[in-house]
TrEMBL record:
It comes from the Bacteria. The active site is at 57 (nucleophile). Substrate binds at residue 118. Its EC number is 5.4.99.12. Formation of pseudouridine at positions 38, 39 and 40 in the anticodon stem and loop of transfer RNAs. InterPro entries: PsdUridine_synth_cat_dom_sf, PsdUridine_synth_TruA, PsdUridine_synth_TruA_a/b_dom, PsdUridine_synth_TruA_C, TruA/RsuA/RluB/E/F_N. It comes from Micromonospora musae. The gene is truA. This is tRNA pseudouridine synthase A.
Amino acid sequence: MDGRTRLRLDVSYDGTDFSGWAVQPDRRTVAGVLGEALDLLLGAGIATGLTVAGRTDAGVHATGQVCHVDLPSDVWREREPTLLRRLARLLPGDVRVRAVTEVPAEFDARFSATFRRYEYRVTDAPYGAEPLHRHLTLAWPRPLDLAALNAASAGLVGEHDFAAYCRRKENATTLREVTRLDWRREPDGLLVATVQADAFCQAMVRSLVGAMLVAGDGRRPAEWPASLLSHRERSSHVTVAPAHGLTLVAVGYPEDPAGYAQRAELTRRLRVPAEA
């Protein structure tokens, strides 16, 4: 990091027309679009090490995504006053960088994170999703019971092996600690699940939602989602909920910057090569 400055970028995006976060050949991705904008603004290859807190899947949205990049310190000093506004002019309307903040070199958007928090939106209205919200809300065809949804979620909180809910990767752990999982019904009738954990396996949140929804509409007992935690392989009985209902809303980090490196070391030891 000698002669370079690390920057934290707070990012929001509508995932509808993106093939997820990670760069993929011949596909439109959030990282690809953001990297192109940085290259156009700063020069090719000037911004390096783009690292994200959590690589969201195709169709998943974010209001609280976090990533970091490294810039030459002299470039940062020159561009700091105008960088955010210039990025706004270059980026397409479905992705925004909301803040650019200088952080210590020990900050790692992925490994320094202490939690990721998602929300999943569902409507059980008989007419389906409101047109203006259709890209953010799953329309469920059956009535959902809030008490049943929360009863189903209760048994999933805590540290468990979530193999039944994860797409397993070679040599990757499926052990995760879910610190919050609950449902609320908004005044307009919309149901919102909040799911928070230290990290998530690929498709884990949508798999949990899929299991809870069939308990919420009465087709499975409330105990069923938690009973799957005894499985050591992905359960074929779990349907992954569609991506468009899911939004990454927050990523947490140690309050004291001195804790960034320690948290990153602990996470690498526990998670590598697991997907956050």
